[in-house]
Each structure stands twice: as structure tokens, then as C-alpha cells.
Amino acid sequence: MADASDLLKLQAEIDALRTERDALISTLERDEREVSEQNRLLMEEQDRFVSRLLEAHEREIGRQRLELDEARTTADRLMQKHERDRTAAARLEEELARAKVELDRMRGERDVARAETRRVQHSYVATQASVERLHAELAMAKAMLGDAMGDGTPSERFQSVEPTPATHEVSRPPRESGIVNRRPSHPRQSAAPRRDTPRAVAAGRRTKESGPPSSR
To answer: Which of 81, 166, 174, 178 could make a disulfide contact with 130, Cβ separation 3.0–4.6 Å?
Structure first.
């Protein structure tokens, strides 16, 4: 009887252990299912996070590529502008050098023109002085001729000899005036006989009017 009761107790304990084992197995399986579910959810969250991160990274890479392309385009445009500016600067320097040479040439021509103008002015002043001197000599000769004649008739006759004021060219010498052209010989040498001619004419007139001494 004791052996049967012990067997029953053992059987009961074995059943209890089996029940506890099944409960533990069920709990372990449930925990494993929860862990696997959590792992799946975690993996899915990680996948979504990595996808979002990759998408953001790709967007950032695309934006940076666009910025790089724009920067390269801007750099190329700036380089082209720099080349154009350098070419324009070189062309302006050449034009400035030519302008300086032209300015120096114009200054030289201006200096030559000023010297020529001064020479022409001096020549004009000398010519004017010669003309005035010739007019003074002519007036003095007419006065001496009038004093020698004693009346105004010869002076009126010699008024046609007085030259009209002529405009002398600046480039001509002073002796190329109208008076010199009318007198091919030297004026001072030919003036002496003209001063003596009226006296001879007056003496001849007095001789004709009085007649020879023998006729009286």
C-alpha cells in the first residue's frame, strides 16, 4: 500500500512537473514570438530609417552636385569675362600708346606751327616796316620834288605814281612790293636824277620865256 501511494505521489509530481514544463515551454515560445516580432519591427524601423537617411543623403548629394555645376558654370563665365577684360585692357593700352604717339606728333606739329607763325609774324612786321619806310621815302621825295618845282602842278602830276596800299603776302620778301616792280633799278640811285629834273625843266622854261640876250 505504501508503494502504491508513493507511486501515486511520484506520478502526481511528475504530472505537476510536466504541467510546469509545458507552461514554461509555452511561456518561452510566447517570449520567442514576442522577441521575433520586436526584432521584425526593429528591423523594419531600421530599414525605414536607413531608407530615409539614404534618400536624404541622395538629395544632399544631388543638391551639392547642382551647386557644383553652378559653381563651375560661374567660374567658367568669370574666366571668360576675365579673358575679355584682359583683352580689352590690352587693346586699350595699345590705343593709349597710339594716342600718346599721336599726341606727341601733334605737339611737335603744334611747336613747328608756332615757330612758323612766329617767323611769319616777324616777316610780316619786317615787311610792314619796309612798306612804311618806302611810303616815308616816297612822301619825302614828293615833298622835295614839290619844293623844287615851286608849285602844286607837278605834285598833282606825280600823284599817280603813289602806290595804292597793297596786301603783301607774308611769304614774299619786303622788296617784292608794287613800288619795286615799277622801279626795276635801285630806288635810291634813281631818285637823285628825278630830284634834279624839275630844276632843269624850270630853268628851261625861264630861258624860253626870257629869250636869248642878243634878241633884246
So the answer is: 174
